[in-house]
Amino acid sequence: MALLVSDLVAHPELQLTVVAGGEHLDRPVLAAHASELVRPGPWLQGGELLMTMGLLLPMDVAACRAYVNDAAAGGAHALALGLGPELPYQQAPGPLVAAAAEAGMPLLTVGREVPFIAVTKTVFAAQASEQRAAVECAFETQRRLTAAAAAGGGLTPTLDAWTKATGVRAHVTDPLGRVIAADGSGEQEPGGSSADLIGRVAAAGIRSSAVAPGLEVQPLGARRLRGMLVLSGDMGADARMLIPGLVSLLSLELERRHLADEPERRHRAAMLGKLLDESTTAEQAADVLAGAGLAADTVCGVVVEVPADDGPQAAREIAADLALAVPGGLIRNRGSFVEAVVGAGLDVDVVITHFAPGCPAGIGSPVPPRAARSSLREAAGLVEISRGTGQPARARRDRTSGLLLDLGDRSALTGYADALLGPLDTADPSGSLTRTLATWLDSGSSWDETARQMGLHRHTVRNRLDKIMQITGRRLDDGDDRFDLWLAVRARRAARHV
């Protein structure tokens, strides 16, 4: 509790007597200051007991009124006049008493044998006692928080102890902002504009924090961001004193969890190795995923390349981060690569952007669990494309070829297409042969679908395709020749959209 004017008056050794403003003795006294200035207001900070002997103050109504009003404007909470046989006044002058009463300013007189320094020491001693009590309370609260953390109950007991001690609600999120623990207040999600603050801290990392009115977000973790603490409510000085300790306790718990999960991460990495083993049958692969708790109807492979300069530890840390962010996923690191099989419904781009920003990454096609191996191989092949584009490369029928073509030199691709399709352009300036070829390739080599899309008889389509083979010298039943023609058609199509 702050020291009040009434508390000072209650100290008998100070011999303080109230001569005006007795109805305002509930004002706090933050300091005791002695001054003989007749305009002391500019030298005050607020909350002071202003003491004077009145040496320079004219004792007329106007001068006393100006003095009291100036002190009040400076923030003084009370005035004290020193009395004594060798001092100007033996009792409080009437003009000063009247001015103080008019302004509602407490006016005290200081006993004849009491120096001003005694009043100052009393005020400072009360403040020191208050600060000591606040520190002792903080230590006691910190002990309760530590006891809750040491009980082994996880994050929630610590958060609950914090909220009971401070009245400030608390939540812990994972690095993606998903709530993983909350205090016992019943609020399972932080309120207000916490999402924006969480996003800022998540993007900036372990050395950041964010504050808004009634909200504060602090990072949790030792060397890497393991989670975030979200505090909601009005935080006074006492609560703020406890925040560093709370952050340390929660960080220790998250680091403990991280270390405790290492055997499970190794086990799941071994399961991924089993899944990718060439001898594993489709049925066995499905069993591996089921045993891992990955019950999604479709899965996809993910491969992230960690820069070699970052060292193998960086790859292990990213693999551990992904394991935390992807419940049920199978993840392992192999040298500078991190491999994972995750549920296809996961927003992998967000996870990669957060945990492996700037790292080349490939995301395979969604496949049934038994085909997870093929999706992971596809993801590995897309890493090279990601290096060129600077973005995670995702396998999609409508985009993969475009990503591949974007990596090539545009003039070289155009020249390749012209060299292969040029004979068709010469033989058929209308372009019907090239359009038939493109439609046939896009329709999965279906005669009937090509005829339907072009409004032709299927025999007409067949005749055109026979002519195309004659002109180009390429066979459509040969995989390599068909791929060359497909690439030429796609390269020319891409060139038109530049």
Question: Care to give the gist of this entry?
Answer:
The chain has 498 residues and is α/β, with parallel strands linked by helices.
Number of helices: 18
Helical amount: 40-55%
| Straight-line N-to-C gap | 74 Å
Strand segment count = 15
Summing up helix and strand content along with how strands pair, one would put the structural category as: alpha/beta
Mean pLDDT: 85
Major sheet strand order: 1-5-4-3-2
Tell me, briefly, the overall form.
elongated
Radius of gyration: 39 Å
Oligomer: single chain
- Strand portion: 5-15%
Poorly predicted runs are 397-401
- Could you describe the largest sheet, including whether it forms a barrel? 5 strands, mixed
List the keywords.
five-stranded antiparallel sheet; 15 strands; 18 helices; elongated; 498 residues; five-stranded mixed sheet; alpha/beta
